Amino acid sequence: MNLEKIIPKDGPSIEEVEKYVKKYSNELIVIKCGGSVLLDENLFNQFIENIAVINKLGLSAIVVHGGGKNIKKKLDKNNIESKFIDGLRVTDGKTIKIVEDALLELNFEILNSINDKEAKAQSITPKNGNIIKITPEKKELGFVGNPKKINKEALLNIVTEKKVPIVAPMGVGDDGKIYNINADVVSGSIAKELNSRRLLLMTDVEGVLDKDKNLISEIDSKLALKMLKDGDISGGMIPKINTCLDAVNNGVTGVVIVDGRKPHSILFELFSDKGAGTLIRK
């Protein structure tokens, strides 16, 4: 394998990559991307390149994408105002159609972009090999669900074919209807179901910050719970941290909140000593 051809020049060093490729060779890596990574052309292209690199290195990655900002754009266009309860979007019948359109659009864009880089990917949406059965969330949230069952075999079949599954954060209820799911929650459920070695949550922040706004490079569940209780972790970071805690307490070795705005942050997180965000372990 010619690593020099695969690894971008401004990525981690070849020596480090070699060391870490061995570490992940029989492991599963779940990567959730959202925020500006999906909106900013430059960041999007880097993200695609990073996923393609992982695939070309022969490693197994599963991508779950959000799409909050794309959904917001589409809802604004249709003059539909978004209401949120505890960080989750209230989704009525009209909104779910727009959410679905926005997410499918993104899903295919990611799929095609990875295929264009001569890597292999496969789309997973409620209409195309759905893998997520849901239980509805609170009634007042409408078509918002929580994963109840993940079709693990379907995912592993795709991974065995050396393809990257691209999962849209939607599932189907017992009523046969499509529900929106928080993408962090989807990625956490998949990581737990597969006992993945790593779950990377890409965000628009550096990672978890302490009181003085300095990056904390590693924390354990105990400290994370304390920070939640003391209100040091707030807003959109709350569901993320809850996903992290749930994952590390249920078989995932480590969860990392990665700054998606940094160049090649996925590659630096996986294949370098210094990482690129906050690692949360049990």
C-alpha-based Rg, rounded: 18 Å
Largest sheet: 8 strands, mixed
Terminus-to-terminus distance:
35 Å
Parts with pLDDT < 50 across at least 5 consecutive residues = none
Helical amount? 40-55%
Determine the strand fraction and express it as a percent band: 15-25%
Q: Oligomeric state of the chains?
A: single chain
Mean pLDDT: 93
SSE string, helices as H and strands as E? HHEHEHEEHEEEHEEEHEEHHEHE
- The dominant shape is globular
Number of helices, where a helix is a run of at least 4 consecutive DSSP H or I residues: 10
Counting DSSP E segments of at least 2 residues, the number of strands comes to 14
Strand order of the largest sheet: 5-8-2-1-11-13-14-12
Structural class: alpha/beta
